[in-house]
Prior knowledge:
By secondary structure, this protein is an alpha+beta fold. 32% of the residues lie in helices and 15% in strands. The protein folds into 2 domains: 1-97, 2-Layer Sandwich (Herpes Virus-1), CATH 3.30.40; 100-150. The model is unreliable at 2-16 (pLDDT under 50).
Amino acid sequence: MDEHLTSQYNSSMEGGDIDRDRIIDGHLLPDEYFCPICRCLLWNPCSCASCQHLFCQKCIHTWLEYSKSDKTCPFRCQSYDERRCPPLFHSLLSRVKIQCRNASFGCSEVLAYDSLERHENVECKYLTRTCPECMKLILVSEFTEHIQVP
């Protein structure tokens, strides 16, 4: 895989990737659970029809956009032809337990893979928002009060 392109890609990533530190017993998970592009837990995985490697859907789409080549798979097997994640592998991912990304703000929830996105984006009592004035992450529940302070 092209390491230069991977490092260029990683520097453009947004937050929210799930690394081993957030996964309960993450050190026990095989490397196949992790995207070879972002090196985080596979999220909405899809695979290359040719080599069967799995990638985060967002990662492979961004990779193909950055590569500007003939849409070659990162493993250079052939042109990338997307296939959906095998149901068995998705079932294995569903068993993974992950700590909420808002743990540093006080959330103690540990969620199943399939419940994580809704919790972190809608249900979590510790959702944060970036203040446009000071650029700090502020709890949504305290945001109105924060922006009113002179």
